[in-house]
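Example (one chain per record):
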Amino acid sequence: MDVDVVIQAEDGSRQVRRLNARGVISVGRSPRSALYLESDLVSRQHILVDVYEQGLRVEDTSTNGTLAGATLLRRSAAEVPFGTPIVVGNYTLLFQPADDAAEPPSNPTVVSADGEERPPTVAPSALPRPAPMPTVPGATPEPPRAAAPVRPSQRPPRPPAPPGRRSSDAGAKAPGAAPSGPPPAAPSVPPAPAAPAFAAAPAAPAFGPAFAAAPAAPAFAPAFAAAPPAPFAPQAVDAETALRRELHRQLAEQLDASALDPGRGGDLGSRAELQAAVRRLLRGAEGRLPPRADAEALAAELADEAIGLGPLGELLNDPLVEEILVVDPRTIYAERDGRRERVNARFTDEDRVLVALGRLLAPAGVRLDGRAPFVEARLGGGLHVHAALPPLSSRGPCVTVRKAARAALSLERLVRVGALDEAVARFLSHSVAARKNVLVSGGQGTGKTALLAALAAAFGPDERVVTVEDVGELGLRHPHLIALVAPPGEGPLPGWTPRALVHQALRMRPDRVVLGACVGDEAFELLRAMHAGCDGSMTTINAHSPREALARFEALARSGSPSPAGTSVRQDIAAALHLVVQQTRYHDGSRKVSAVSEVTGIDPETGELQLSDIFRFERTGADGAGRVLGAFRPTGHLPTFLQALVEQGLVPPGGPYL
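Predicted structure:
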């Protein structure tokens, strides 16, 4: 059978092509495609269309996805009825069965938005990807969704052809195979549409007066008897985004592939060549530059996007940046010294965000194939990357990059920045040196890991230390250190969880075990290590107060205990754990030790774990710049292990106890 394909570009022009539907129809930017679309937003092979009597099977093979009706396809397939708008890059396609009685047009023409016929023109320049289709009046709206992957081997069998019509199975070929027999004549559009499916249907309002789409015929199978697909409404694009897209397209046309190789992102010569090419292009587009635009900065940004990570590259190389937050292509925040500030940088569009994200995740073997709406990876250097992708992220790809500190902070530096005072630092250092077990508590982003690494500086040089982490963030500098990092669950070593690594660490004859973060049943193994002679072990936990930290640690330990209902876990915590250090992040972005508490046992009346504060940070207000004011004060409680500090010589004669 043959199909008529209505092709509409975003400039309003349209044309109709008649294609032979025997076999699979390939649509893409490659000249070998059955339907050739020239645009940098179209992949070389963007979709494969399988036509049969009841409708179409559309399979996306692109890098940026396809919208079939209200269904977003990313490396997946879906079945749709004839007349469903299929958005490929900056084109919208409608497939209709051709009328066998009508002669195919012989002279191709392009019909503009005002109805004027003219010869075909050059394909439009790079334009934004269309937004999801609005709902049809009176129909229940269906949100865009990622279709379940359909493998090519799972294609539905074609139904038998009705009498009088050629079977679409006859002569079916694999994609790219040469057709048998003479090639079909080049189709065109006559002045008046001859096919009743196009002539009789009312025009869909969102496509303009020159575009008419036929509703689904009632003779379709029940699977295709749903309401006709919603019309497509293009998304408005600002002048700067359109210019940046145009410059990227021109760069791809003027430079060879080696100049745009991402592997040369660190090649200064390649970057300089790209920037020089962008400058030349900008000189030809001076009238289109936004007001107060810095042409030199724009050239550098486009070069970074072409072969690097875009704005992420500079932020990742900035040692003061602790966290990078990409809200949408135009909105990026960076966290420095606990404060989040919007940076003066942007991506061109969503596609450039995805390209940069793909390059960033490539070393970890993570691919953006559209099968998962969230991706997460741990990279070298202590980077932790998380991204939420469309359609779940309505503003485009949302990326969060956390950076581990390149150099471990010392207690002296924490004192200088006001995270704690000299008395608190001295007491904590003496307690760690005396091999007391410590639990560092705090919310996300409060600096728990940095404080844990600073406390580890009090380890003895001859002590054997084993660290267990899921992300290598501690960066301890110790002569006798064994650092274990749990692999990702979907990696080549599944099953090696932090609990399994803590269990193995006990067989390495450690003096101390340091668990980077306690988030699961590994708490029980750490508790066993504290009772097995690994005095001076430490970990961190997410909690907002010392009492909440104890309750959470107990719950996690019970989840790994063979007898979670008994009281032995609570008794083990009371006997093994000595200190809870609470870390807090305040409204001005500062991070401080807000409390140091001792675990003093179990209350005989209530059966609850008992805590006694040794130090507390008392807030007194804020200065004119909004910075938190306050002081660290001892509560008067002397720790029960104070005599051990004196006996080990950690408290000098005549020196302060705390």
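Caption: The first helix runs from residue 196 to 199.
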